[in-house]
Amino acid sequence: MLERYTRAPMAQIWSKQNQYQTWLTVEIAIDEAWNRLGVIPDADLAAIQEKARFDTKEIDRIEAVTHHDVVAFTRDVSESLGPEKRWIHYGVTSTDVVDTAQGLRLQQANVVLQDDLDQLLSTIKRQAGRYKDTVMMGRTHGVQAEPTTFGLKLARWYSELKRDIERFQHAARGVEAGKISGAVGTFANIDPSVERYVCDKLDLRAQEITSQVLPRDLHAEYLATLALIATSLENFATEIRSLQRSEIHEVEEHFNPGQKGSSAMPHKRNPIGSENICGLARTVRGLIVPAYENVTLWHERDISHSSAERIILPESTTLVDYMLHRFNRILTELDVFPEQMRANLKVTYGLIYSQRVLLKLIDKGMSREAAYDLIQPLTAQAWEQHCQFKTLVSDNERIKALLSPAEIDDAFDYHYHLRHVDEIFRRVGLA
Asked: Which of 336, 339, 352 is nearest to 137 (CA)?
């Protein structure tokens, strides 16, 4: 994990210290379950609960000899114990501990991510309400189309993020899972009640059936969901980047005192935060491929997924946490320029009202084809000669014969396009 894109909560969750701590938590929970079955004496369990410790440096030293991290861990923990050490790792295989502890760490990461998502959803909701009626240009193909509001744009983001949250909560439940079922998932050397106890205690879901490992389609779905969240953030950030262009300049990432936009050009104010979001989204999407390829393992398990997961799980959760936090700040501090938005309504000489004129002519009895062919040359003339489309419409004899001056004025009123904003907000849940 790059320090530049790592926030403290995720750094702690994916630290080696927390890795071994969650392993130890699982090991002790397993022994507690054995104790409840009458296998481990009360005194031995009490000693394990009180004295079991680990030392990360010592584990590293032992692993250099064993070339097996779980063996190194259990041997180090055993050194902190007396005769009761014989119960450490009793009846289980490495992945019983590692996969269950990984579910525990993903659970911790998901608490952080859910809080990030909730905060961003709240920010979008607040900003959508603030700019609900702030008129601006709607654009298709990058070209001015018809009026909309900045609030409606934000309402679309709100709806998309709600879908992201729904997907995330489902995928998160999938990976917050544990298994204590032995070397090939048959519970040959461990009672199934041990698994139930451990998972219940750690608030994990006991997977209904496993091999030696939890099924990796769970993790593939999870990584894909994080990638989709990152892609939503890229979608939002790309819009900010486009609207900040000098030719549009309807919004701008807040520029702090002392901030510099360019080493060469003192005037530059660049959307660097949004560009950062877009770049990191590409990285998170790239982690999907190994996640999907990890699903296919030999027979009841091989180790090919392990090395990839040591990278893709910390990286994806850490990057998405960073992205959500950073974009929340971008949107909270975003500078919005309603006057420029209104000014941009006029830059195409009123051509944005061409459909409204078209429909009024149809309402008067003209065929759609005839109305379209009448209006289109006037739009071309306005664009090519830099003259007002409304003037050309008002001066056209065929149009004047059908539309009164008041009806023409009405066709060029942007309020017509915004009359359903309140209804849309209600549908989205922003009333």
From this structure: 352
93-256+268-343: CATH number: 1.20.200.10
- Tell me, yes or no, if 299 is annotated catalytic: no
Which is more confidently placed, 271 or 222? 222
Q: Specify whether the CB–CB gap between 80 and 61 falls below 8 A.
A: no
- Measured CA to CA in angstroms, residue 251 lies from 81, 255, 276, 277, 316 at distances of 63, 12, 17, 17, 29
What's phi and psi for 140, nearest 5 deg? -125, 140
Rounded Cα–Cα distance for residues 90 and 93 (Å): 9
Q: Answer for the pair 37, 194: CB distance below 8 angstroms, yes or no.
A: yes
User: To the nearest 10°, the Cα dihedral for 101, 104, 109, 115?
Assistant: 180
CA distances in angstroms from 53 to 12, 20, 23, 24, 88, listed in the order given: 19, 10, 11, 8, 12
**In sequence order, what DSSP letters do the residues of 309-343 get, joined into one string?**
HHHHHHHHHHHHHHHHHHHHHHHHH-EE-HHHHHH
Say which CATH class 348-428 falls into: mainly alpha
Exposure string for 59-86, b = 16+ CB within 10 A, e = fewer:
beebbeeeeebbbbbbbbbbeebeebbe
The token duo for 118 is 């909730």
Please tell me the number of Cα atoms within 13 Å of 126 on its side-chain side. 11
pLDDT tens, residue by residue, 59-108: 999 999 999 999 999 999 999 999 999 999 999 999 999 999 999 999 99
Q: Are strands 177-178 and 251-252 parallel, antiparallel or unpaired?
A: unpaired
Residue ranges matching CATH 1.20.200.10 in the chain:
93-256+268-343
Question: Catalytic annotation on 307?
Answer: no
Query: For the segment 348-390, what is each residue's pLDDT rounded down to a tens digit?
Result: 999 999 999 999 999 999 999 999 999 999 999 999 999 999 9
HSE-CB for 390 with a 13 A CA cutoff: 16
Q: Which residues of 19-44 are buried (b: 16+ CB within 10 A; e: fewer)?
A: bbbbbbbbbbbbbbbbbeeebbeeeb
Indicate which residue of 68, 122, 262, 367 is catalytic: 262
**Residue limits of CATH 1.10.40.30 in the chain:** 348-428
Q: One of 67, 141, 299, 386 is an active-site residue; which one?
A: 141
Integer CA distances (angstroms), 47 to 82, 293, 315, 322, in order:
8, 43, 37, 41
What does the alpha-carbon distance between residue 319 and residue 311 come to, in Å, rounded to a whole number? 12
pLDDT band at 266 (very low <50, low <70, confident <90, very high): confident
